[in-house]
């Protein structure tokens, strides 16, 4: 079984879907591994390290994909007209491709038409057995860390209280909005740096988690928010009335903050706006807002996705895209392990190939296409009436 790893070509993508550590493990499973030259460099991994792990370093996309039975990607391959290389058309029919594959009906139809067995890892069910394969969690965790580091870099004071002979500098007030995987890591990181940390979320379970990390809980709760959590652990969309009440609580708190980190997402929808232009206007000059939800449209009304802006009242708003890509070495290491765990879980040792039982909950959750057809329950074309 030949396993191919491509260089990522989408804008600002710095990660790579395999590391020398996972390459060695794939070889131990009986694979040969081809990695496109330069694929690991933005993550700090030179070709020589892959070669030392036993991979064949290949010169271009075509040579990498030639004969591949498995293709590992961070993000969806480029198609016709999307870049200098049409990666999609070079993927052998029947190959299993895993990554964050843009699980839209259009993309699924394209994968099916090309005979690619596409597994969209972002759709992995949130069950205990799948935790170690969960790319959303592993990448969100590092985004939360990186957001705080980025805020600390842009902040013109310090996080901790600094007592010096020349006097005292007070600790920074840090407010984390959304206390899921990214937000909890942001809380922990901001605490480690010495900030005075508070946080909010709408899921009742998050309140206890915020407190257990030593942060203060600030928020609005109602009968409605008691039911907000889905079986998968995500937050549902709430009513306009709820958001208005939540905004009142937040507005009073935000005016006193030095750093705000926003991480709130609602599954399958645009990110909710939690910080309005008026709230930003109420903040002190020099305050920093980091919007990790920028890839989903942002939690801050003034966020410009991909940009670092300074408002007229001197508030810095950092809305970079692809937060895990800003800490590429660690993100690649965890993403690569997530993919390795998925494949080893469904590995047929005798055939030395993946075996994906269609009835398995994880397989059902992830696979977009099988045998040239769209099979995912949320994307398969409706049966003709
Ligand atoms: P997410 O990235 O979808 O959202 C981030 C956070 O934003 C969530 O905590 C959500 O409640 C919050 N949010 C949404 N609307 C908000 C609003 N208006 N105001 C404030 N906060 C708002 O979520 P996530 O971080 O991926 O995960 C959420 C939960 O799922 C966590 O409890 C996590 O532990 C759980 N989880 C379970 C598994 C598993 O069992 N395998 C895996 C991953 C995550």
Short description:
The chain contains 12 helices and 19 strands. The chain has 385 residues and is an alpha/beta fold.
- Mean residue pLDDT: 95
Q: Percent of residues in beta strands?
A: 15-25%
Alpha carbon gap, first and last residue: 41 Å
The secondary structure category is: alpha/beta
Strand order across the largest sheet: 11-10-9-12-13-15-14
Written overview of the protein:
The chain is α/β, with parallel strands linked by helices and about 375 residues long. Helix content is about 30%, strand content about 15%. It contains twelve helices and 19 strands. It has helices at about 20-30, 45-55, 60-65, 105-115, 135-155, 180-190, 205-210, 225, 240-255, 275-280, 330-345, 360-365, and strands spanning about 1-5, 30-35, 55-60, 70-75, 95-100, 115-120, 160-165, 165-170, 175, 195-200, 215, 260, 290, 310, 315-320, 345-350, 355, 370, 375. The protein binds nicotinamide-adenine-dinucleotide. Nicotinamide-adenine-dinucleotide (NAD) binds near residues 183 and 274.
What attributes characterize this protein structure?
single chain; alpha/beta; 385 residues; 12 helices; globular
């Amino acid at each position: 079984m030949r396993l191919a790893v491509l260089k990522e070509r989408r804008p600002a993508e710095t990660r790579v879907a395999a590391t020398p550590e996972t390459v060695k493990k794939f070889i131990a499973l009986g694979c040969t591994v081809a990695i496109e030259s330069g694929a690991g460099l933005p993550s700090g991994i030179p070709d020589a390290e892959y070669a030392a792990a036993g991979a064949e370093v290949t010169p271009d996309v075509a040579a990498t994909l030639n004969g591949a039975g498995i293709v590992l990607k961070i993000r969806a391959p480029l198609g016709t007209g999307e870049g200098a290389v049409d990666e999609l058309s070079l993927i052998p029919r029947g190959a299993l491709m895993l990554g964050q594959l843009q699980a839209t009906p259009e993309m699924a139809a394209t994968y099916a038409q090309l005979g690619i067995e596409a597994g969209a890892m972002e759709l992995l069910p949130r069950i205990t057995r799948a935790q170690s394969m969960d790319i959303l969690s592993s990448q969100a965790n590092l985004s939360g860390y990186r957001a705080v580091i980025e805020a600390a870099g842009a902040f013109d004071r310090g996080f901790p209280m600094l007592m010096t002979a020349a006097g005292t500098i007070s600790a920074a007030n840090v407010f984390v909005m959304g206390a899921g995987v990214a937000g909890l890591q942001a809380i922990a990181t901001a605490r480690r740096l010495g900030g005075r940390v508070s946080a909010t979320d709408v899921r009742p379970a998050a309140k206890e988690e915020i407190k257990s990390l030593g942060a203060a809980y600030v928020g609005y709760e109602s009968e409605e928010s008691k039911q907000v959590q889905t079986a998968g652990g995500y937050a549902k969309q709430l009513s306009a009335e709820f958001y208005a009440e939540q905004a009142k609580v937040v507005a009073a708190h935000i005016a006193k903050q030095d750093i705000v980190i926003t991480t709130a997402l609602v599954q399958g929808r645009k990110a909710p706006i939690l910080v309005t232009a008026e709230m930003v206007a109420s903040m002190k000059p020099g305050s920093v807002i980091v919007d990790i939800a920028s890839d989903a449209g942002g939690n801050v009304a003034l966020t410009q996705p991909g940009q670092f802006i300074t408002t007229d009242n001197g508030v810095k708003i950092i809305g970079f895209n692809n937060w895990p890509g800003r800490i590429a070495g660690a993100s690649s290491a965890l993403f690569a392990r997530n993919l390795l765990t998925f494949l080893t879980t469904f590995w047929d040792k005798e055939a030395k190939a993946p075996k994906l039982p269609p009835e398995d909950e994880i397989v059902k959750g992830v696979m977009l296409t099988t045998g040239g057809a769209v099979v995912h329950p949320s994307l398969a074309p409706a049966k003709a009436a």
